[in-house]
Specification:
The complex is a heterodimer of chains A (354) and B (115). Chain A is an alpha+beta fold and 354 residues long. Chain A is built from 13 helices and 13 strands. In chain A, the strands form four sheets. In chain A, strands 5-4-6-13 form a four-stranded mixed β-sheet. Chain B has helices at 3-11, 63-77, 96-105, and strands at residues 25-28, 52-56, 82-86, 108-111. The chains are: A alpha+beta (354), B alpha/beta (115).
C-alpha cells in the first residue's frame, strides 16, 4: 500500500486535508498499526477486492476500505458492517454510479438490523438519525469516506448533487429489535432472524411526520402519513422507485395493535398516498416521454381527477421501526428515494470473522 | 506579604518542559487505485455509406437538444444513415447488448449526456 510519513498527530490531521482524504470533517490518522490491527481482526487478504466503486471506479481492496474505516473512527468490530454496506452498494440494482453523480440530493442510507444492533451498540431509539452512538456515526462515516476516497464522489466534480444533505457526512440508523412489532427488515428481505444485515437505500434527508398516533385512529394515522409522503416535488412521486418510511415505535405499536402488519400498512398507504393529476402535472421535473414519469403509472393520465400513486408497487416502500417512543405525537420519518433508475434497496448479510 | 504577592505566586508558574522523542508516523493512503484502460477514440473520416448511431440518455434536460441533433444528422447524412436509440434508465450505463448492437450496425455513435 502507498504510505506517507509525518512527524506528529497534528501534521497527520492536516495532511489528510492536503491529500484530499476528507470531505471537511477531521479524521483519525490511518496509521499502519491501526490498519494492520483491523486487517488481522478481519482475517482477510488485504489485496482482495470487493469491487470497483463508481464513478471513479477505484479498487475497493480490504486494505483501502479498512483505511477509510480507521479514518472514520471505527473499531475493528464495526468494519464487517461497513464491508456489508459496500457490498450492498455495489449490487447492480443500486446503480451507485448514478447515485454518486446525480444532481439529486440523495445519499445511501444504511439501515442495520438483527442481533448486531445490540451487540455493537447501534442506536435505534431517541435521535436515531442524530448523534450519540459511535457505531451509527462511524459506520455511516466510513461508508461516506469509501464513497469519497475510493468512489471519487467529490462535490461539484463528480458528485453533481445540487443540494446534497447532511447525510452525506454520515447516514446510518438501526432498526429497533425490541420495539419493532413486525417482521424485521432483513427477514422480509430473505435472511434469517438470527442473521445481522445492512440494507442500503439512496434517499433524501428524513422528513418528520407527526402522526398523533398516541391519540388517533389507524385511519387518521395512515391518512396523515400518506398526505405527507406524496408531495408532488419529490423524486419518488415523479419517477417511482424505492423509498423509506421509518415508523416510530409509538406509531408502529398503535398500528400493530389495530391489526396492521407491514404488508397491510403498505397497501393502505399505497391506496392513500396519491395526488390528483391536476396537481401532479404542475411539476415539470420529468417529461411525460420519460419511461419513469408518473403518467405511465395510471391508466388515464389526461384525466385531471385521476389519482397518481406515490407507491407504484408496495414492495418499493421500505419500512423499518426506529426512533424514540416519544409522546402521543407519534413521530415518524419519510425519506423519498432517488427514483426507479437506482438507489434501490439492497441487503447484505454481515459476515463476522470466525 | 499581602494579597498582591499571593496573586503573583499563584500565576507565576512554569509548565514543565519534557523532550519527548516521537518517531515518524506512517499513514496508509486510503484512496482507491484506478486501473486506466481507456484508449483514445480513433479519428473518423466521414464518407457516404457510413452509418451513425445516436444513443440518447433520455434525460429531461437534454430532450429537445437531442431531438434537434437527431433531426440535423438525418438532414445532413440522410435518414437511412442514422439509427437512433434511447436508454430506458437515464442514470445507468447502457446495457451491454445495446452497445454491442450499436457497434455492429454503426461506424460511429453519438452518445448523449445531460443533467
Amino acid at each position: 500500500m502507498k504510505t506517507l510519513s509525518v512527524d506528529s498527530i497534528e501534521e497527520a490531521v492536516e495532511r489528510a486535508y492536503t491529500e484530499g482524504w476528507t470531505d471537511g470533517l477531521p479524521v483519525v490518522p490511518p496509521t499502519v498499526p491501526l490498519v494492520e490491527k483491523a486487517l488481522e481482526y478481519l482475517g482477510v487478504d488485504p489485496q482482495e477486492t470487493l469491487g470497483n466503486v463508481p464513478p471513479k471506479h477505484g479498487r475497493a481492496t480490504y486494505e483501502k476500505v479498512v483505511a477509510n474505516c480507521v479514518m472514520a473512527g471505527c473499531r475493528p468490530e464495526h468494519m464487517p458492517v461497513v464491508i456489508a454496506a459496500v457490498r450492498a452498494m455495489l449490487q447492480d440494482r443500486f446503480n451507485l454510479n448514478g447515485v454518486q453523480a446525480t444532481t439529486n440530493s440523495v445519499a445511501p442510507l444504511v439501515i442495520v438490523s438483527g442481533p448486531v444492533v445490540k451487540q455493537l451498540g447501534f442506536n435505534s431509539r431517541c435521535g436515531v438519525f442524530g448523534g450519540g452512538s459511535r457505531a451509527n456515526a462511524t459506520v455511516g462515516r466510513a461508508v461516506r469516506l469509501v464513497l469519497w476516497n475510493i468512489g471519487g464522489g467529490y462535490p461539484g466534480k463528480i458528485d453533481m448533487s445540487t443540494m446534497g444533505h447532511p447525510g452525506k457526512y454520515t447516514f446510518c440508523i438501526a432498526e429497533d429489535p425490541e420495539w419493532n412489532p413486525w417482521t424485521p427488515l432483513h427477514v422480509e428481505r430473505g435472511l434469517k432472524p438470527e442473521d445481522s444485515a445492512v440494507t442500503v437505500v439512496a434517499t433524501d434527508g428524513p422528513q418528520q411526520i407527526g402522526t398523533g398516533s398516541g391519540y388517533g385512529s389507524a385511519e387518521e394515522v395512515l391518512t396523515t402519513l400518506a398526505d405527507a409522503m406524496a408531495a408532488i416535488g419529490n423524486s419518488t412521486m415523479n419517477a417511482g422507485g424505492d423509498m423509506v418510511l421509518v415508523v416510530g415505535p409509538m406509531t408502529a405499536q398503535a398500528l400493530a395493535s389495530r391489526g396492521y402488519t407491514k404488508e397491510s400498512m403498505r397497501e393502505a398507504l399505497q391506496e392513500r398516498a396519491r395526488k390528483p393529476v391536476r396537481l401532479a402535472r404542475q411539476c415539470l421535473f420529468y417529461q411525460p416521454s420519460h419511461p419513469y414519469h408518473w403518467s405511465h403509472a395510471i391508466p388515464h393520465p389526461d384525466d385531471p381527477d385521476a389519482m397518481v400513486p406515490l407507491i407504484r408497487d408496495v414492495k418499493q416502500l421500505v419500512v423499518t421501526v426506529a426512533g424514540g417512543m416519544g409522546s402521543g405525537t407519534g413521530f415518524c420519518s419519510f425519506l423519498p428515494g432517488w427514483h426507479h433508475g437506482g438507489g434501490l434497496a439492497c441487503t447484505e448479510k454481515i459476515q463476522f470473522p470466525d | 506579604m499581602g494579597a498582591g504577592w499571593l496573586a503573583l505566586k499563584k500565576f507565576n508558574f512554569q509548565t514543565e518542559r519534557r523532550d519527548i522523542h516521537v518517531s515518524r508516523i506512517v499513514l496508509c493512503d486510503p484512496v482507491g487505485e484506478v486501473a486506466t484502460t481507456a484508449k483514445p477514440s480513433p479519428v473518423i473520416h466521414w464518407s457516404s455509406g457510413k452509418k451513425i448511431a445516436t444513443l440518447f440518455n433520455n434525460h429531461v434536460s437534454s430532450y429537445r437538444v437531442w431531438k434537434r441533433l437527431e433531426a440535423l444528422l438525418a438532414e445532413q447524412v440522410g435518414t437511412s444513415a442514422v439509427a437512433t436509440f434511447a436508454k430506458e434508465n437515464t442514470f445507468a450505463p447502457a446495457p451491454e447488448e445495446t452497445i454491442a448492437h450499436v457497434v455492429k450496425i454503426a461506424d460511429l455513435a453519438v452518445v448523449g449526456v445531460g443533467a
